[in-house]
Amino acid sequence: MSTIQRNMSLTGEPPKTINTQQKLASAIGLFGLALLLLALLNVNFPNKSLWLTASLVAIGAGTVWFSIAAYAHKHEGIKNDGVYFKSLTSKGFWAWILGISLTLFYVLLYWFPQYLGLGNNGDNTDLVALFDPLSRFLNGGPASQWFVYGTLYTLAILAFGIKFILKYCHNKYEKLRTYSVMFFQLGFAFLIPELMFRLNNDSLSLPYYDLKNIWPLNYYNFEQYRVDQFISAGDIGVALLIFGVVSILIITPILTYKYGKRWYCSWVCGCGGLAETAGDPFRHLSDKRLIAWKVERWVVHSVLVFVVLMTTAVVHSYLGDDSSKYWLTKDVFLICVAVILTLVFSGTFIFKREALQKDAQLAAIGYFVIIMSLIGLHYFAATKLFLFNAETLRQSYGFLIGAVFSGVIGVGFYPIFGSRVWCRFGCPMAAILGFQQRLFSRFRITTNGGQCISCGNCSTYCEMGIDVRAYAQKGENIVRASCVGCGICSAVCPRGVLKLENGPLQKRIDSNEILLGNDVDLMNYVNE
Amino acid sequence: MEHVVIIGNGIAGVTAARHIRKRSDKKITIISAEADHFFSRTALMYVYMGHMRWRDIEPYEASFWKKNRIELIKAYVETVDTRNKTLHFKDGGSINYNKLIIATGSVTNTFGWEGQELNGVQGLVTKQDLEKLEKNAPNNKECPRAVIVGGGLIGVEMAEMLRTRDIEVTMLVREPAFWAAVLPKPEAEMISQHIISHGVDLRLTTELEKIVGDAHGNVKAVITKAGEEIPCCVVGITTGVTPQISFLEKSKIETGKGILVNRHLETNVENVYAIGDCAQQREPIGQRPPVEAVWYTGRMMGETVAQTICGNPFEYNPGNWFNSAKFFDIEYQTYGWVFSDKKRKEYEAQFHWECTKDLRCVTISYHKENNQFLGINTFGIRMRHEVFDRWLNEKRSADFVIQNLKQANFDPEFYKKYESEIQNQFIHQFENA
């Protein structure tokens, strides 16, 4: 990362863009945060429900008022003035303060929840205790560090979602998309699982299940304790388990074929939801260089291979050998995995080979051979599956990918690396959806003939680091695996060049050497 | 190996270089005194506004040039010696060429006003102009008010830039509405209102008489032709641009307003070509002016000249006219010809629709006699280039265009559609007539 060039000369200093109302609103929001901080620092609030409510309302109201003060008096339109002049949004002092604070919070959350006040058997103190009343109200039990996290996460998506809606009040696509992520976070990620938990009793014990959280994002969905819980919960449990499998194998491919991966990544997903709302002010910080794209392709697909191996090993470890007891034995399961992977691999190579870059072909072959030989090795040599203990694989995945990557780096580093680092480099779900989007989907971003002026707004504000301009200025449609369909490139384009749409597969990717507007003969001559 | 030298690293020169590289192994050198790398001139405003950094408006990474074997030289070409096929640089040094492409673009057009050499008087065309503006108008304390002379595309961009730093802006426009020399009246009036709503003091039918300086040679005020004095720290000159050809004065290359070229973009001297803003067509093409200072035409000339240089002689033959711009928050696109009231052809009829609630409008021009569709201006509604290009080629009727307007819509998904409203008004208009 090179240093930010704030403006072009040393004399210039653009006006501070925060007005009096925004200052008051910030004070209210910070007051709410301060209450949480006091709780964290051992202040024992007498009336916890009251103080928790005060804190959450102050944070939410402060954010919303701030947004109204920022946008209400302005014209409908793009509001990126001064983005690269503000410390918080241009990797300045406040960006680092925020990044370090968020990172510390994640470290406590994942590895030292006792410092947040998590006690044994619900005997909570400090911050976690402050959330006990809300937890009891929703699910009947005391709070955990995850309940605290979930509440704050949901609050962030709701409050900053309203901010985003106010910012893009002229853009119906952006508004609908934001209502959608707010709905799925509040309902599916937060309320429904808590209420489902309430249904549990001696005879029914459903695992905590956010229905929209699909494997492999939800990498632990098929672990033994969960599967046991699903099965012991009877028909509902089995239905949920089947839903989990159907989600990734059937529902996801169909929706991605029709609408692209955006149906999930920027309309439903919680990680995407936070990135699109609270992370929006940092979207331009994503790295647009070619080298970053190269790293992205290797890392994200490696994570996908890792999660496939890990899940296969974990499921394999708890299945039985005796087919008379249950049809799904270790061997049957491995054969199923091998068959699915072979189908995906050969299908891609037969039908879509020309759409893959050379390095992608080599990588695909490489990974396929590795997985298959590991499975084969197990068959013929009967060693430990994949050479590693399943539990070791699970734990290292949970630590490296589940905690460090998605939490600490993914969100903690928002103000430094941009809002979609996890989605771009780490999310195995995004890798699967992206693979489908690139090869088997109707979605594309259409470029409007020869109208591009190469200004670079689209690339700058692409949170996934796609160099949108590189395609638009060639008159080429943008069909990239990583595109989450947030629609901001289209919104910030000053010349109406980009449109997200679903259409026929033919001519989805048109590469033009000569753009529309020039001699028709020349276009035909060179473009063919 | 043949050496192609290109003077100017704007859109025209760089497009030519890219296409020559695609089709050949010739040695390619681009010379520029303005910037190290190609940047998007139309995006200068976004750097001042804080939307992007300088490097964000450079479309190619630094490694691109090396990878494509395009040599870059930062130098100012002072003389062109076509007899020896040599360019001489201002700071000494020279370079030989086999083929020369001149793509030096434009400079700000001035009219010899008194005081135009004062500090604080500037255009907005080059990287250096942006640096100057950053120095002249860093904030509203050092520059409480700026005056912009000229009501065109650069003028409104400059106004938008300055307003993001809360600098008061007075715009002097000669016409009775903003850009009325190009836009039909209702559109020019809508845009004028929008500009005013952004806090710009828009002075219509007002012209600059002279610029007044203080003892240090800095701008103090402007005086209008009506005699009014307007105090200001910056005077933005946005009265159009003119080809940058002064360095050719002593050369054998024939010039008029710009460098005179034939349809192959060849100048009067063999192996010397001119493209982009600095070129002037000897015979105007269609209804186009002989000098076109537009991003797209620069690009298209670059695409064409590359073919000619690579042994496939091609005439520059631009297709249907198109253009686009953004006036503060209102996007504008145009396809085909829609003329202003002053320039309107006697056969041209116009149908105008304006949204009652929002700042959106559409003007469709067509032939009075045979109803042939001639062009469209669209504000606040995005339309498809490809569709209008096809309809213009197919010489569709205005009725057909209005009926099928939906096909051309390019607004984002879920946006409100206005086609039926437009269609109703179109039908209604003839019932009343």
UniProtKB/TrEMBL annotation, chain A:
It comes from the Bacteria. Keywords: 4Fe-4S, Electron transport, Iron, Iron-sulfur, Membrane, Metal-binding, Transmembrane, Transmembrane helix, Transport. Residues 443-471, 474-503 form the 4Fe-4S ferredoxin-type domain. The keyword Phosphoprotein does not apply. The chain crosses the membrane at residues 24-43, 49-72, 93-112, 146-166, 178-197, 236-257, 298-320, 332-351, 363-382, 397-417. InterPro entries: 4Fe4S_Fe-S-bd, 4Fe4S_Fe_S_CS, Electron_Trans/Redox. PANTHER family: FERREDOXIN-TYPE PROTEIN NAPH (PTHR30176:SF3). This is 4Fe-4S dicluster domain-containing protein. It comes from Aequorivita aurantiaca.
Automatic annotation (TrEMBL), chain B:
Transmembrane segments: none annotated. Its cofactor is FAD. SUPFAM superfamilies: FAD/NAD(P)-binding domain. Residues 3-281 form the FAD/NAD(P)-binding domain. InterPro entries: FAD-bd_OxRdtase (IPR050260), FAD/NAD-bd_sf (IPR036188), FAD/NAD-binding_dom (IPR023753). Keywords: FAD, Flavoprotein. The keyword Flavoprotein applies. Pfam families: Pyr_redox_2. Coiled coil: none annotated. The keyword Flavoprotein applies. It comes from the Bacteria. Gene3D superfamilies: FAD/NAD(P)-binding domain (3.50.50.60). PANTHER family: NITRITE REDUCTASE [NAD(P)H] (PTHR43429:SF3), PYRIDINE NUCLEOTIDE-DISULFIDE OXIDOREDUCTASE DOMAIN-CONTAINING (PTHR43429). Belongs to the FAD-dependent oxidoreductase family. This is NAD(P)/FAD-dependent oxidoreductase. It comes from Aequorivita aurantiaca.
